Every structure is written in structure tokens, then in C-alpha cells.
Amino acid sequence: MLGRCVPREHSRPRCPGDSAKVRTTIDEPLAHLPVLLQEAVDALQVKAEGVYVDCTFGRGGHSREILRRLGSRARLLALDRDPEALAAAQDMVDARFAALHASFGRLQQVLSGEGVSRVDGILMDLGVSSPQFENPERGFSFRQDGPLDMRMDSSRGLTAAQWLASASEKQIRELIKTYGEERFARQIARAIAAARSGRAFHSTRQLAQIVEDAVRTREPGQHPATRTFQAIRIFINQELEELSLALSQCPELLEDGGRLVVISFHSLEDRIVKRFMRDQAQPAPVPRGLAVREADREPPKLRLIGAPVRPSQSEIAANPRARSAVMRVAEKLPGRSAPRRARV
Question: Could you tell me if residue 144 is inside a domain?
Fold first, then answer.
């Protein structure tokens, strides 16, 4: 599904003389604190007349900061698959800005539909936003009771409750082990299977209690259901698959010198980002047994920029959600023979 949450006339920049007509609400207070806000936007090296993509709008913290640095002829496209995030984007009325209902795994298709083939920067702030966690109706958190949903796009797909009702005990065990890195996956899966045989459960509190009863040993400072909820959420939203798809499209979409900035919040995401950037920063591998001159090898597509960036202690104190964040940055290198593509 691809939807637009701003009027069509606001989707493209106006002519230079119209800049005074642009009405924007980008300075309105934010409902939550974006992580690594200044560091991420600084890493993009925003050009005043550039074209940028915020792949995970959330509540628009990073988008607002990017817009503050853009000139009148620039453009910012924001993607999000959460209808509530897109509803929040309606307050950002700006001729340079458009928010689109889409997953970032379809990044190239979405940009093509907007007449854009190359951009100057791509930002991804992964995971679940604070408003999603804080709303019990979304089912992401075990802290408050609510429906066991967990869908980022609440307009489509199976809920967590529906999947748990139909999955086999083995499927549940493997999912919790793989996506949650949970050492008690076997006990938890067995407890879930036993609980649903007696009655259906549809609430976050019920699932959290089942896991808590099954796990006798707790990690210090962590609820025993943390890893299980993470695993189910990642699976329901296909988060790792979407991330891999989106990353694979970035080198082709970036202008020479364009920046890719990714903020991740757990090891599974960060591992994918780290490996992708590392692999793209090396020349293409030579097939075994084939003699190829070094000069003929496909050159690296990206170069790594600096070391991974983590939040400061002061940011973590102000926003505990930031404690596990890590940001990685890469820059597009010129291709040997790739022509520069026209942008709209």
C-alpha cells in the first residue's frame, strides 16, 4: 500500500520566488525524543538544495531537523508504514516535504513513483518508536495490558495473537531463539503451547505472565518477557527482511558522495547493517578460478565514515530508550562508469 498524507500540491518544491509562501510547522514541540538527533543529521551532511529520504518518519524528529537545514528548492520524502505516524505527519505542512504510507523495503519503487531516481542522503532510525510502545492498544509492550497486536501497519497482516494461535510449538521455539536470542526459548514455547490449548489468549499481559511463569531466572534489570516480545514483533513486521531489502537498494539510489545513516537498537539489526556496509566498502569478489586484473574488478560502492556512534551519557539519562542505540554511516563512492542520473 502506498498512501500520501499531505496534499498533492505540497509534494514538490515550488519555484524560488515562492519560498515566502511556504507554511511550515516544523518547530512544533515533539511528542517524543528522537535518538542521536544532531549526530544523525550532521552525518547526512545536508546540502541546502538536496533531496533526502527519512525512511522511518516516526513522529518526525529527524525530518524536522533535516527540513531546518534545507533551502527552498530542496526536497524531503518521509516513509512510514504506521498509519498513526502518517496522521502525525499531517501537521507538517511544507512544500518541500511529503510523507508516504510505505515500508522502506520498497524504497526504490516508492521513490520512482515520486519521480526521484537519486538522492543525496538516506536516514533509517530502526525499531519501534516511543509512541508505539506507550500506546497499549498497539500491543508492543508488556508493561501495560492491551490487545496482542504488534503490527506496525495496523491496517494489514496477522496480529501476534493470530500467529501464536496457529504456529506450531517448534515454530514458536525457533522464532524466539532466533529473533529474541532467548536461551529459554524451549520452555517458553512449551508454556505458550500449553496455555493456548486450554484457552485462547489475546492480551499482552496474558503472554507476559505465561513467559514470566516459564522463566525462573531473570537477567538483571530485564523483564523475562523482553526477548520474547522482541522476537514476535520482529517476525510479525518482517523487520530484518525489510531492512536487508532497503539496504540493498541504497547504493543505487545515492548520488556520488551521498550519505547513508542507520541507527539500530539491537544486535540483530546492527549486525545486518555492519555486514552490509563492510561488504559494500570492499571491491566485488572475484569468482573462484577466474583470473581478473585488479583494475578490472568492480570498485567498492561505499566507504565507511568514522567509527560507530553511540549516545552520550547525558542523552541516555534524558532518554533511556537511547541506551542501546548505535549509528553507522557510509558514503557513496563514484562508480567507474555509472552515469549520473537525472533527478526530479
Answer: no
